[in-house]
Write a structure and sequence with these properties.
By secondary structure, the chain is mostly helical. It has 2 domains: about 30 residues; about 140 residues, Orthogonal Bundle (Lysozyme). The chain has 8 helices and no strands. The N and C termini lie far apart (about 45 Å).
Length: about 180
């Protein structure tokens, strides 16, 4: 009887340790830096914080100094033209060095996401595809097949799926 009890206790302890390790790994792989700024922007612009985090992770993995081949910059990986457009929508000034300011970058990402979500009637798949490939491409895909069943750009298709998955994880971990 005592051996059986010890095996069960050991099994429970191991299961608890594995669960704790998995949880620690998840939080390590999916950090939530700039939490106050993200939460503030989520409330201010009406965009889910988990979506903001998912986009920032997919775009730059939270590197405020990131620069892409296409010239996108900062945490949100916005081009200067898109950042300027988002700043105008928010009624803010935009200087080209602002892309590397974490708080400014997060705010501009939230404004641009809000705009895209509104444009595409709340459809996060379309909005994130437009964030990655541009509105013009998404509009062409929609006019070609009506509901964008297939995303013809492999990179954008992967991006949309990644953001969707990251959003789920951030929703589970931080909401």
């Amino acid at each position: 009887m005592e051996k059986k009890y010890n095996k069960r206790l050991l099994s429970l302890i191991c299961a608890g340790l594995i669960a704790a390790l998995c949880t620690a790994l998840l939080y390590g792989f999916f950090p939530a830096p700039y939490r106050d700024t993200v939460e503030d922007c989520a409330i201010r612009y009406g965009v889910e914080s988990s979506l903001i985090y998912a986009v920032l992770k997919a775009e730059s993995n939270f590197d405020p100094a990131a620069v892409s081949r296409a010239g996108a910059k900062g945490l949100a990986q916005l081009t200067d033209a898109t950042a300027q457009y988002a700043a105008e929508m928010a009624g803010e000034e935009y200087g080209f060095g602002d892309a590397f300011d974490a708080e400014k970058s997060i705010g501009l990402a939230a404004v641009y996401l809000r705009y895209l979500l509104r444009k595409y009637d709340g459809d996060q798949r379309r909005a994130t595809a437009a964030y990655n490939a541009g509105e013009g491409n998404v509009d062409k895909w929609l006019s070609a097949d009506g509901d964008m069943k297939e995303i013809p750009f492999g990179e954008t298709k992967k991006y949309v799926n990644k953001v969707k998955w990251y959003k789920r994880v951030y929703s589970l971990l931080y909401n």
